[in-house]
């Protein structure tokens, strides 16, 4: 048993982070959030396709990268850190099945938990979206439709989808922890950095604890692929992303309540992802049933 | 990332399971949880069986009398013994998990030969003399003094919350060997001594916990003579030695307990299905959430063990604080849920195992560094936030 990232996995994670930092940094995120109704950056989508992001799990014989669920989770964690917009999970799961999805030339979305992200921008829609009505999404970078029912759920693809959403939540939880710590070291009040105050320290420490517990759950579920473990990973990662964003906002004080700080974007995306895939109630019932 | 075990590890697991299946039915009945001398005898009898079967001090170095097993084998040992419902380490807790590893890592050859074999055989019980009435969370403020007189230290002062003092043979004792001054900050000037509990001048006054038992005590020291040869580590270097001890306490001391909590959670679900409480969706979902919680804490344990195995140190790092923070609260939530499963009548039944565990779980956010201190450690040593108030 060696439950640590391999050298290759570290390299993959660092590589994805580098690509995203170069192509979708904080300024790009802010620009996208400020530019009115969201539109999908198709050039970026194709660049991700060229880099092998969507074809990570497609076998090499079929032109993919031939890696596993664990590597996919590391890539999606990075996407979550960067708050990359778009129907990444649905397109990733369609790679190898829908032409052009692996290359990033076809954008795929799907109904998930009764919600459909990016319906109007998608080229291909999976699942039953008849009767879809637009919502005013809380997240400025995730347009949403609602469909009657929950759009169908329970298959293996849904389980993998939930795990990838959990990985994005994990990335966001880690990022907001870093943002809070950086701010707590820089911002001074009463003649010292606010990070010297225990009340602020304890908020930050709990953010790290939440992120690390969620990390263990998400990584382990990616290795075992176990259904109950994936349900637990989604539950804990949802909670880590939402609670960490809220605590990060609190550490930022008045600045955190403005549009200018990026914190609210993480919180709103975390809320949206919480509504996609398995809900907390369903995950808890599934885990209870397995006891 | 790999969660599979090697063939060697699996055959170790199989051998252990077979031994547990054969040995556990031979154990005497468990003593009353409030009968502490009875518990000492029971716990040490279990330790003796482990020793005879070659399972004692599994993760200790071979030259300390252990088997030099890998952290992963140690993990398997803790997992399987808990799964099988084997006795808890109990009275041997301090010796096996704190004092022993500290002496193994910091002691001389003579010290290791003197103190480690009796711990492994279950012959001698250790207690922990760290905290004082005015030095609990602020451990470095301790005031118990030791001054040199020939080949002895003469020790005066008092300790409190000394686990297992009532039945202990030895005490891992922190004393101040150089007074605090402008030249000697409070973290310096502390030494780590092995004190025999039968030395003249020691008075033990058992403290009754809120659970009604006397697992710890006040210990009064009135000019107790402890040989200088009993000092582990250099004089005035006790703080560093203590940090070794505490990293064991925070890092590996709770591993088996996570497995035990998962077992208890299964028991709670069975009981709730039997007594009708399972129909309460709020309670059911609460148990489901706890399942995710303890599942993740088990994975975090495997993560930390793998990390220490890669580092080759065997000593858990500061990440132990992350684990301890979450685990101590999760354990309290588990036994809160147990109270709900039992319902009002059960919650008031002091004779029920879950009620006693519910009461004792309240110590988890206090002992071995309070949650507030742990949060400071995480914030300052991992996240790099500035020291302050």
From TrEMBL, chain A:
Q: Does the keyword Iron apply?
A: no
PANTHER family according to UniProt? ACYL-COA DEHYDROGENASE (PTHR43884), ACYL-COA DEHYDROGENASE FADE28 (PTHR43884:SF20)
**Domain Acyl-CoA dehydrogenase/oxidase C-terminal, chain residue ranges per copy:** 163-270
* Record-linked Gene3D superfamilies: Acyl-CoA dehydrogenase/oxidase, N-terminal domain, Butyryl-CoA Dehydrogenase, subunit A, domain 3
Identify the residues that the record assigns to the Acyl-CoA dehydrogenase/oxidase N-terminal domain, covering every copy.
6-86
Q: Which UniProt keywords apply?
A: FAD, Flavoprotein, Oxidoreductase
Cofactors demanded by this protein: FAD
> What name does UniProt use for this protein?
Acyl-CoA/acyl-ACP dehydrogenase
Q: Which family does it belong to?
A: Belongs to the acyl-CoA dehydrogenase family.
Q: Which residues form a coiled coil?
A: none
Cited Pfam families: Acyl-CoA_dh_1, Acyl-CoA_dh_N
KW Disulfide bond (keyword) present: no
The record ties this protein, via InterPro entries, to: AcylCo_DH-like_C, AcylCo_DH/oxidase_C, AcylCoA_DH/ox_N, AcylCoA_DH/ox_N_sf, AcylCoA_DH/oxidase_NM_dom_sf
UniProtKB/TrEMBL annotation, chain B:
Q: Which residues form the Acyl-CoA dehydrogenase/oxidase N-terminal domain?
A: 6-123
Which residues, if any, are the signal sequence?
A: none
* Named cofactor requirement(s): FAD
What InterPro entries does this protein map onto?
Acyl-CoA_Oxase/DH_mid-dom (IPR006091), Acyl-CoA_Oxase/DH_mid-dom_sf (IPR046373), AcylCo_DH-like_C (IPR036250), AcylCo_DH/oxidase_C (IPR009075), AcylCoA_DH/ox_N (IPR013786), AcylCoA_DH/ox_N_sf (IPR037069), AcylCoA_DH/oxidase_NM_dom_sf (IPR009100), Mycobact_Acyl-CoA_DH (IPR052161)
Give the Pfam families listed for this entry.
Acyl-CoA_dh_1, Acyl-CoA_dh_M, Acyl-CoA_dh_N
Q: Which UniProt keywords apply?
A: FAD, Flavoprotein, Oxidoreductase
Q: Where is the Acyl-CoA dehydrogenase/oxidase C-terminal domain?
A: 236-383
Q: Where is the Acyl-CoA oxidase/dehydrogenase middle domain?
A: 127-223
PANTHER family (UniProt xref): ACYL-COA DEHYDROGENASE, ACYL-COA DEHYDROGENASE FADE29
Q: Provide the family line.
A: Belongs to the acyl-CoA dehydrogenase family.
Name of this protein: Acyl-CoA dehydrogenase family protein
The organism encoding this protein is Streptomyces durmitorensis
């Amino acid at each position: 048993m060696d439950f640590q990232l391999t050298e290759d996995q570290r390299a993959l994670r660092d590589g994805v982070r580098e690509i995203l930092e170069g192509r979708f940094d904080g300024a790009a995120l802010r620009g996208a959030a400020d530019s009115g109704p969201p539109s999908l950056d198709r050039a970026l989508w194709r660049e991700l396709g060229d880099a092998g992001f969507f074809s990570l799990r497609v076998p090499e014989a079929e032109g993919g990268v031939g890696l596993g669920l664990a590597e996919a989770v590391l890539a999606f964690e990075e996407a979550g850190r960067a708050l990359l917009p778009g129907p990444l999970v649905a397109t990733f799961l369609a790679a190898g099945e829908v032409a052009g999805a692996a290359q990033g030339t076809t954008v795929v979305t799907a109904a998930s938990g009764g919600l459909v992200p990016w319906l109007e921008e998608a080229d291909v829609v999976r699942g039953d979206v008849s009767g879809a009505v637009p919502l005013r999404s809380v997240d400025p970078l995730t347009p949403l439709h609602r469909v009657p029912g929950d759009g169908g759920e329970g298959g293996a693809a849904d389980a993998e989808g939930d795990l990838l959403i959990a990985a994005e939540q994990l990335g966001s939880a880690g990022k907001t922890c870093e943002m809070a710590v950086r701010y707590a070291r820089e911002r001074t009040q009463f003649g010292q950095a606010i990070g010297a105050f225990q009340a602020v320290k304890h908020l930050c420490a709990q953010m790290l604890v939440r992120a690390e517990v969620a990390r263990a759950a998400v990584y382990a579920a990616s290795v075992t692929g176990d259904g109950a473990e994936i349900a637990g990973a989604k539950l804990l990662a949802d909670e880590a992303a939402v609670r960490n964003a809220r605590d990060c906002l609190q550490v930022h004080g008045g600045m955190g309540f403005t549009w200018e700080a990026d914190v609210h974007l993480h919180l709103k995306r975390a809320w949206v992802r919480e509504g996609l895939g398995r809900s907390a109630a369903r995950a808890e019932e599934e885990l209870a049933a397995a006891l | 990332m790999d969660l599979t075990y090697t063939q060697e590890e699996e055959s170790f697991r199989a051998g252990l399971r077979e031994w547990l299946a054969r040995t556990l039915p031979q154990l005497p009945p468990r003593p009353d949880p409030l009968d502490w001398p009875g518990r000492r005898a029971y716990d040490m009898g279990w330790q003796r069986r482990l020793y005879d079967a070659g399972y004692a001090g599994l993760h200790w170095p071979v030259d300390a009398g252990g088997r030099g097993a890998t952290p992963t084998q140690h993990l398997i040992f803790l997992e399987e013994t808990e799964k099988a419902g084997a006795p808890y380490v109990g009275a041997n807790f301090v010796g096996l998990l704190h004092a022993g590893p500290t002496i193994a890592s910091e002691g001389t050859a003579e010290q290791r030969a003197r103190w480690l074999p009796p711990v492994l055989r279950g012959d001698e019980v250790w207690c922990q003399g760290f905290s004082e009435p005015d030095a609990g969370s602020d451990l470095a403020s301790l005031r118990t003094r030791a001054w040199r007189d020939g080949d002895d230290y003469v020790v005066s002062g008092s300790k409190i919350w000394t686990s297992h003092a009532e039945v202990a043979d030895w005490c891992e004792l922190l004393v101040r060997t150089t007074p605090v001054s402008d030249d000697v900050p409070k973290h310096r000037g502390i030494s780590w001594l092995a004190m025999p509990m039968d030395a003249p001048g020691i008075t033990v006054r058992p403290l009754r916990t809120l659970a009604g038992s006397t697992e710890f005590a006040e210990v009064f020291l009135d000019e107790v003579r402890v040989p200088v040869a009993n000092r582990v580590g250099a004089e005035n270097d006790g703080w560093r030695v203590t940090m070794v001890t505490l990293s064991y306490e925070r890092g590996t001391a709770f591993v088996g307990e996570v497995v035990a909590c998962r077992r208890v959670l299964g028991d709670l679900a069975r009981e709730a299905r039997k007594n009708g409480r399972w129909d309460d969706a709020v309670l059911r979902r609460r148990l489901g959430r706890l399942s995710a919680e303890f599942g993740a804490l088990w994975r975090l344990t495997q993560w930390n063990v793998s990390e220490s195995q890669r580092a080759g140190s065997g000593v858990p790092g500061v990440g132990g604080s992350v684990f301890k923070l979450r685990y101590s609260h999760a354990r309290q939530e588990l036994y809160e849920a147990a109270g709900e499963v039992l319902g009002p009548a059960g919650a008031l039944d002091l004779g029920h195992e879950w009620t006693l565990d519910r009461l004792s779980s309240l110590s988890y956010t206090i002992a071995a560094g309070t949650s507030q201190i742990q949060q400071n450690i995480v914030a300052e040593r991992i996240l790099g936030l500035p020291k302050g108030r």
